[in-house]
């Protein structure tokens, strides 16, 4: 049995809950241009358009619930406890809604906002700003309130990244679910792990991918469960992590 399991999730784990993935048929980036709504320069150029996009996503989130993949991962965490670590690129709350507790949101959280200028900590926020009213200002007097998500052109939060690499360095099994393997630095996690090759006891660390198609970084995975997350995650857990 594995003692330290690192799970990485991407948009595909939430697809069957009704949240579109970014790439591929019906993907978010087919409808919107990432440079116009999810880039730091987009915020500087047209913050109202950026808020329109995230207001839509906040509203959409009220309609969705976790699917069997989120639930199975939360159950696995309950069994393994502190040996379990979930790093998600998703800004949605579906892992938490399913009961997951050890979750690092490396790309931020849809229901959090922060000031674009001062160092006020991010705060929980469900508000939407697409009605033409002026955008909310921070109490610091200079900044505008923005979603607490990581955009292209921004660095990932250092503390989350450090914690994530610490977990990567000590895991003895790596599972990725529903991520195309093209966005850095997350796409390189599995390569980083493969360069390490063995855990402290000298055992090889298996790397497993779950999703309907092979990701761009497929060469670093040992095993594939090709299919949808809601079908394959429970199957993988039953086979690889029997209770
Ligand atoms: P992508 O949209 O790039 O990839 C989604 C992956 O999910 C694809 O590999 C699909 O094959 C897979 N998939 C689709 N349906 C699935 C299902 N039912 N079950 C399992 N897998 C399924 O999403 P990410 O890799 O998460 O960043 O994207 C990474 C980042 O790029 C996002 O966090 C976002 C985006 O631009 C920012 O916005 C900064």
Question: Which structural traits does this protein have?
Answer:
alpha/beta, six-stranded parallel sheet, three-stranded antiparallel sheet, 17% strand, 243 residues, binds 2'-O-acetyl adenosine-5-diphosphoribose, globular
Verbal overview:
- The chain is an alpha/beta fold and 243 residues long.
- 35% of the residues lie in helices and 17% in strands.
- It has helices at residues 12-15, 28-31, 34-37, 40-45, 47-61, 68-80, 94-98, 158-170, 189-196, 229-240, and strands at 5-9, 84-88, 103-105, 108-115, 123-124, 145-149, 173-177, 207-211, 223-226.
- The protein has a six-stranded parallel sheet, with helices on both faces. A three-stranded antiparallel sheet has the order 5-4-6, covered by helices on one side.
- Residues 10-12, 15-16, 21-24, 27, 34, 38, 89, 107, 150-152, 178-180, 183, 211-213, 215, 228-229 line the site of 2'-O-acetyl adenosine-5-diphosphoribose.
Bound molecules: 2'-O-acetyl adenosine-5-diphosphoribose
Which percent bin holds the helix content?
25-40%
pLDDT averaged residue by residue? 95
Q: What share of the residues does DSSP label as strand, in percent?
A: 15-25%
Q: What order do the strands of the largest sheet run in, or round the barrel if closed?
A: 3-2-1-7-8-9
Straight-line distance between termini? 9 Å
Short note summarizing the structure:
It contains 10 helices and 9 strands. It has 243 residues and is α/β, with parallel strands linked by helices.
């Amino acid at each position: 049995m594995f003692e330290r399991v690192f799970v990485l999730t991407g948009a595909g784990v939430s697809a069957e809950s009704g949240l579109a993935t970014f790439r591929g048929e019906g993907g978010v980036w087919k409808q919107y241009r990432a440079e116009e709504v999810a880039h730091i320069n987009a915020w500087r150029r047209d913050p109202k358009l950026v808020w329109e996009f995230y207001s839509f996503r906040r509203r959409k989130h009220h309609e969705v619930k976790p699917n069997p993949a989120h639930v199975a991962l939360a159950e696995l965490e309950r069994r393994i406890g502190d040996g379990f670590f979930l790093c998600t690129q998703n800004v949605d709350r579906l892992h938490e809604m399913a009961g997951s507790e050890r979750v690092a949101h490396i790309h931020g959280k849809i229901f959090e906002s922060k000031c674009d200028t001062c160092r006020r900590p991010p705060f929980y926020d469900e508000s939407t700003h697409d009605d033409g009213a002026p955008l909310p200002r921070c109490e610091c007097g200079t900044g505008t309130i923005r979603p607490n998500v990581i955009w292209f052109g921004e660095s990932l939060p250092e503390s989350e990244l450090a914690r994530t690499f610490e977990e990567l360095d000590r895991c003895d099994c790596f599972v990725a679910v529903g991520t195309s393997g093209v966005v850095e630095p997350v796409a390189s996690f599995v390569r980083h792990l493969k360069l390490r090759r063995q855990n402290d006891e000298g055992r090889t660390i298996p790397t497993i991918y779950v999703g309907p198609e092979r990701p761009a970084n497929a060469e670093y995975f040992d095993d594939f469960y090709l299919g949808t997350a809601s079908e394959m995650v429970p199957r993988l857990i039953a086979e690889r992590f029997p209770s």
